[in-house]
Design goal:
- The chain has 406 residues and is of the alpha/beta class.
- Among the domains are: 66 residues, Beta Barrel (Thrombin, subunit H), CATH 2.40.10; 216 residues, Rossmann fold (3-Layer(aba) Sandwich).
- The protein is 36% helix and 23% strand.
- A hairpin with a 2-residue loop joins strand 7 and strand 8.
- Helix 7 packs across helix 8.
- The N and C termini lie far apart (134 Å).
- The N terminus is likely disordered.
Length: 406
């Protein structure tokens, strides 16, 4: 009997604990606590996922800036007035830059000289040659001569096809008397006309000038993944161009490589069996350290420093390249021909410090390198801010390769 009562008492006691948790707390409070904890974890996970998604988006955008193929438009320069030998443009950082530039609009162009006056919202510059724009014309400013060699410099040329591993790539050949050819390799997402600044000097010295295209250029084959590989594969198209030049009579070549063309040239010198054919190299504002260049551009846009690291890793993941391998400062090419290195001290895209560093290391590297720094001007604009000095440097550098004059 007692045993039955005890059992009942124990049962009743347990029944009396219904609604309590193991610590004597009400069960409803425990459920509310669990719900709060679940909400907290859900919010934390959501925040982390949002952060990762945001970081991924930023990294993708940053890598697109480096490796996406783009066809740039003509810009938004507007002609406000035309006078005797002058043109007035809407004021902007681009239209007020000192130096020589080309105004292009509707298929026409004119070479502009220095700024002669400024007024609120207006910049007046000299017109040197070319067509006279009309009031209201909208176009863009170019740092390079417009069009092909005949349009830009009045020089005859022939179209040459370079058989690359991906297919035929067009090139312009301005003939010359010598057997040392100058091969021009333009920068990323640029037109080959951008590499024509030295053409008048090259032609005057009697050297043939081959201005090439490479994968992803207009008229050239696309890369298999449709992305720019920052020189890691483009150098093979330069190799094909050197082979083509050799087949047409070139015994030696000098490479003219503005912007990313310098990275392409560096990889050619590091990896091509034809590198020994190069007797000279001219690099202009080349991003010699791509990771530092990314960090520089992130800083210029007032973005957090980790964005650069994320963008670089995304670039490597999307292309399969090793950015550190392309660092010309830390990993100079095995073949190091006499080199003229040019950079402006206010370049907003490729940090001038990398050119200074390579110049400082050149003696230890046994690299015959001459460094010339220009004051003012944007990316690859040393020629624009001081054409006379630039042409003189190029002429002095190329003269030993020129054939005797008739």
């Amino acid at each position: 009997m007692a045993s039955a009562l005890e059992k009942r008492s124990e049962r009743d006691g347990l029944d009396g604990l219904d609604g309590l948790d193991g610590r004597g707390a009400p069960e409803g409070g425990s459920r509310r606590g669990r719900r709060r904890r679940r909400w907290a974890w859900t919010a934390a996970i959501t925040a982390v996922l949002a952060l990762l998604a945001g970081a991924g988006s930023v990294a993708w955008y940053g890598s697109d800036e480096a490796i996406a193929v783009r066809r740039w438009g003509t810009g938004d320069v507007v002609v406000l007035g035309v006078g005797p030998g002058t043109v007035t443009l809407r004021d902007s950082p681009a239209t007020r830059r000192p130096g020589l530039y080309w105004l292009e609009w509707g298929g026409a162009w004119t070479m502009l000289g220095e700024v002669v006056s400024r007024a609120p919202g207006r910049v007046t510059r000299t017109m040197i040659k070319g067509a006279t724009p009309y009031v209201g014309a909208a176009g863009g400013l170019s740092v390079a001569p417009p069009g092909d060699p005949r349009v830009g410099w009045g020089l005859d040329y022939t179209e040459v096809t370079v058989p690359t591993e991906l297919g035929p790539a067009p090139a312009w050949l301005v003939p010359g008397r010598g057997d040392t050819w100058v091969i021009a390799v333009h920068g990323k997402n640029a037109h080959r006309k951008a590499a024509q600044k030295i053409l008048s000097v090259v032609h005057d010295l009697g050297l043939p000038f081959l201005n090439i295209t490479y994968r992803n250029d207009h008229g050239a084959p696309a890369s298999p993944d449709g992305l720019i590989h920052l020189g890691d594969s483009e150098w093979r198209d330069l190799e094909a161009a050197v082979r083509t030049a050799r087949g047409m009579g070139a015994r030696r070549v000098v490479l003219y490589a503005p912007s990313m063309g310098g990275v392409i040239a560096g990889q050619f010198l590091a990896r091509s069996p034809l590198a020994s054919d190069v007797s000279g190299l001219i690099m202009d504002a080349s991003p010699l350290d791509l990771e530092r260049t990314t960090a520089w551009n992130v800083t210029q846009r007032n973005l957090p420093a980790p964005v650069a690291w994320l963008a670089d890793r995304m670039t490597e993941w999307r292309t399969g390249i090793d950015l550190s391998r392309l660092n010309v400062v830390r990993h100079p090419p095995a073949v190091r021909p006499p080199t003229l290195l040019v950079h402006t001290d206010t370049d907003p895209q490729a940090p001038v410090e990398t050119s200074r560093e390579l110049a400082a290391r050149s003696r230890a590297l046994k690299w015959p390198l001459r460094y010339e720094e220009f004051h003012g001007g944007g990316h690859t604009e040393a020629w624009n801010v001081d054409r006379a000095r630039y042409d003189r440097l190029v002429r002095d550098f190329l003269s030993p390769h020129a054939p005797p004059r008739d």
